[in-house]
């Protein structure tokens, strides 16, 4: 605020008492804080409308040191939900730094929360322990130690025993981690880990312990067989703890300051809470991380002190794989294959219902993490720290680079896109459509832009959280980081302008080749350190790469015959072979679709398992020249039929093996072939528009500023464009403001190629002199197909909107008239 703005706010303060957001600004504009001025300030607090919990947090920042103001903020904060307070506990502990005395209203309130809910007591204890261990400011460290002692005195003896057991557990895990690192080679490291965890399992069985990460989980032991270590620099260990009814897996890491990870995950959770509060569920996977300081022992003589590096415990998400693991299933070139991710989701979701849910989870969570990683400037993104669960949820890990601290290699910035959104992700969202975008992609863009604008609307929550933590000593968290996030939120733009900007970022990320080159480099490094990855999908001799589990003759019924009926072109360039499967006691034959590569995988694995079986080779006479032309496919069809004839006449040990029955088990692509066949999809889309007479429509938003005379035309999505000459059109939008005899009002968007459902999200501007100009003027919007180098552009459809419609629309509080919605496009120009 400038001095003039402060003076104006203070003069008009009594007119603002019904606006909660104005109180921090008014207090910051007070002319003085001497004893004579305090009476007026305190009276203002009493007259002001109560602040929400989010607004009250701002009064706990360091530039409001007055005890009465901070006490008033705590009184308003008491109306907050327990979940909000629990999520904001690290910031409340950090706010203790700015209190004048130890017995502040904030300290008393924190103790009150602990007395009422033991969940707060455990969390507050470990938050205070972090500050005791790591804070260099002795006065604040001592204040945290004093409050920690009060927490132990306030609660019963059982709580003290639980805390002591937690410290012993951390001490033991710290020792195990050090032993594993010192063991040397991989085999010794695993044996060392299992030996020490077996001893720890016996100790936990005798004295159950509550995990610091999740105190509600009472640990009764360790599942040693499911525990291992990760082959990275710090050698983190995965530990699966056993409970009374379930298990809980964590990653324990020594050698990294994990406060950054904890802070980023907290910010992401805050973002998700904002979205959920506005009924936008992006299916975000939220997991917890708790860092520990340089001492894992207790400072109150319960245990002796142990010094080590920074460390932490992270909740592990179950049933997930990194993009690197999914892509490397077919070797290093898997990073360039668009269909692998979709096939992986199909494999783990065999029913149509499961698959549709997985696609929805993928689309929504991918949108959430695109927005979150952009706003926070998360760097060092590669295919080993982006994960996908079997149910389709995308999530990120490893947040060592953030707030614009980009990863570099040989002086070059490796993170060259606003966020990671690659063509294989778009392929999943488009459900394998050969077109560049579908209505599902349009929904993805809408969700990204909506999520981004909701964060802009509620930016004060994120900014206040970061301001509170700017004095915490966490690397990279300072006022520059606050400014970075505010800059990324584009707060100087309108929602429409922000939508335009974020859409351009999606397009930039999707078109860039750098992320995949970065993926390739990282995959090659991983393959060099993990030679088994070089085997790709053929690594496990007892399973097929495209089916999640094994099936037997008992599961599906005895196969009597299999006939290769035909081949179909599903992908470019791959062909699929249609196989009729006859089963005993079944009148209706099953149909499965398998590629030649999948047949070859079956052949290789049968030969490995049954080396004395003489099955006819599949590759004879098919490996010269192009392998996907029609002649080759016909020759392969004959080879495959011969292979199947011999296979089912062979010894039952081979013909009835689980590999064979798994191969012919009905999977998602067999029950819904139209979902996987790109060429059938294109035909279905074309026939759909023709048979159902789907109307071509365009989404437009017209905003007219009466004061400035600005008319802004937002061109959003277009749906239902027809196939032109057997191909999806390359379209753009052109506008004119009539009457315009000289045609100087022409505006046009960029070209969106190869789709019947283009997304433009572009704003076109006109300057009108007055409302009088609206009466006799009309806006012409037309969609055009961009011809080839020698062909001419052709109009697809158009709509005329008389601007007099704006006259009947009331202005909003900013003096803007808005007309928006879907408009039907008529064929040709008027």
From TrEMBL:
Residues 555-671 form the PX domain. GO terms for cellular component: cytoplasm; phosphatidylinositol 3-kinase complex; plasma membrane. SUPFAM superfamilies: ARM repeat, C2 domain (Calcium/lipid-binding domain, CaLB), Protein kinase-like (PK-like), PX domain. PROSITE patterns: C2, PI3_4_KINASE_2, PI3_4_KINASE_3, PIK_HELICAL, PX. It catalyses: a 1,2-diacyl-sn-glycero-3-phospho-(1D-myo-inositol) + ATP = a 1,2-diacyl-sn-glycero-3-phospho-(1D-myo-inositol-3-phosphate) + ADP + H(+). InterPro entries: ARM-type_fold, C2_dom, C2_domain_sf, Kinase-like_dom_sf, PI3/4_kinase, PI3/4_kinase_cat_dom, PI3/4_kinase_cat_sf, PI3/4_kinase_CS. Residues 223-514 form the PI3K/PI4K catalytic domain. Residues 694-823 form the C2 domain. Residues 1-154 form the PIK helical domain. GO terms for biological process: cell migration; phosphatidylinositol 3-kinase/protein kinase B signal transduction; phosphatidylinositol-mediated signaling. Keywords: ATP-binding, Kinase, Nucleotide-binding, Transferase. It is an enzyme of class 2 (transferase). The keyword Kinase applies. One of its GO terms (molecular function) is 1-phosphatidylinositol-4-phosphate 3-kinase activity. It comes from the Eukaryota. It holds the Pfam family C2. Its EC number is 2.7.1.137. PANTHER family: LD28067P, PHOSPHATIDYLINOSITOL KINASE. This is phosphatidylinositol 3-kinase. It comes from Onchocerca flexuosa.
